[in-house]
């Protein structure tokens, strides 16, 4: 059987590795040129995004209701267990917003604090 003669293998030109610039071969050269990798690409971004401006009605509602929190956080605020909040306090009238029929319970801090204060002024239960 006759051997197959291989012709010259065509080599594609290699591109520089990711993070390197053309003509720069070592990290030392890159450092001298002031190239610092990914940090350089994000150096121009602001430290924090500006606060979104809320319409006056939303600001007023947020100030009246307070921060929305879950059942674990409200139980620690009141000083009882989540079971007590669910089984005892909600049936007694603790203000709660249910996001769906079987959804998450959402409490608003200022609303809950006002409810507790009203109950204390009445003298208990």
Describe this structure in words.
The chain has six helices and three strands, in the order αααβααββα. The chain is mainly α. The chain has a three-stranded antiparallel β-sheet with strand order 1-3-2. Helix 4 (71-78) packs across helix 5 (82-89). The radius of gyration is 32 Å and the shape is elongated.
Number of strands: 3
Task: Give the helix/strand class.
Answer: mainly alpha
Mean pLDDT: 76
> Strand order within the widest sheet?
1-3-2
Highlighted features:
about 120 residues; mainly alpha; three-stranded antiparallel β-sheet; 3 strands; about 5% strand; elongated
Question: Topology, pairings included?
Answer:
Layout: H1 27-33, H2 38-41, H3 56-65, E1 68-69, H4 71-78, H5 82-89, E2 97-98, E3 105-108, H6 109-122
Antiparallel strand pairs: 1-3, 2-3
Short summary:
The protein is mostly helical and 125 residues long.
């Amino acid at each position: 059987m006759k051997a197959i003669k291989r012709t010259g293998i065509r080599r594609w030109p290699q591109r520089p590795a990711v993070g390197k610039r053309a003509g720069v071969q070592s990290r030392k050269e890159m450092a001298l040129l002031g190239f610092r990798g990914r940090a350089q690409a994000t150096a121009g971004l602001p430290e924090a995004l500006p606060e979104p401006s809320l319409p006056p009605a939303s600001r007023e509602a947020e100030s009246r209701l307070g921060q929305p929190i879950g059942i674990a956080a409200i139980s620690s605020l009141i000083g009882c267990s989540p079971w007590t909040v669910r089984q005892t306090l909600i049936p007694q009238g603790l203000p709660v917003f249910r996001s769906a029929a079987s959804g998450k319970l959402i409490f608003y801090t200022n609303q809950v604090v006002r409810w507790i204060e009203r109950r204390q002024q009445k003298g208990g239960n």
